[in-house]
Amino acid sequence: MIKVWNRTRDAMLGDRIGHAGDSTTRREGLLKRTGLNPGEGLYIVPCEAVHCFFMKFTIDVLFLDKKKRVVKAVPSLKPWRISACFRAHSVLELPEGTIQASGTVKGDELEFTREA
Fold first, then answer.
1. Are 26 and 44 in contact, with CB atoms under 8 Å apart?
2. What does 30-72 look like in DSSP terms, one character per residue?
3. 38: cis peptide before it, omega within 30°?
4. 113 - beta bridge partners?
5. How is the beta sheet containing 70-77 ordered, strand by strand?
6. Segment holding 14, helix H or strand E
7. CATH number for the domain including 51?
8. CB of 60 within 8 A of CB of 95?
9. Could you give the number of structural domains in the chain?
10. Is 80 left (phi over 0), alpha (psi -120 to 50) or beta?
11. Region at 27 (left for phi over 0; alpha for psi -120 to 50; beta for the rest)
12. Dihedral Cα 65, 2, 47, 37, nearest 10 deg
């Protein structure tokens, strides 16, 4: 699991973030989930686009560059929608409302720490 902290806003984005770094976990993503609890999420790397086809819930999406700075924030991405950012290196999928609650915006710097 990974903890993700927005250093710019001094706000926790998630403390139980999963990692999708191979083709199997990236392809599966959140498709088998029925929702995300506060603090949960999925970090997908590499990634510059996401789709919500067949998903059962709405998510917030942050597109990040290689230095883990937000290059695009997409609040409330609904099922059956697509979002992309070709400048992104990775994507952080979070529960709906996380972007608004944390005040996260383009340019914010995120800090990732691995939990044992």
1. yes
2. TTT-S---TTEEEEESS-SEEE-TT-SS-EEEEEE-TT-BEEE
3. no
4. 3
5. 70-77, 59-64, 90-95, 40-44, 11-20, 2-6, 110-114
6. strand 11-20
7. 2.60.120.1140
8. yes
9. 1
10. left
11. alpha
12. -110
In a structure prediction context, what are the per-residue pLDDT tens digits for the chain, which is 116 residues long? 999 999 999 999 999 999 999 988 988 889 889 999 999 999 999 999 999 999 999 999 999 999 999 999 999 999 999 999 999 999 999 999 999 999 999 999 999 999 76
d(CA 49, CA 51): 7
User: Which structural domain, as residue segments, surrounds residue 73?
Assistant: 2-114
Q: Which residue has the tokens 């498709």?
A: 31
Hey, what are 70's tokens? 């937000």
What does the angle CA 21 – CA 25 – CA 30 come to, to the nearest 5 degrees?
Answer: 115
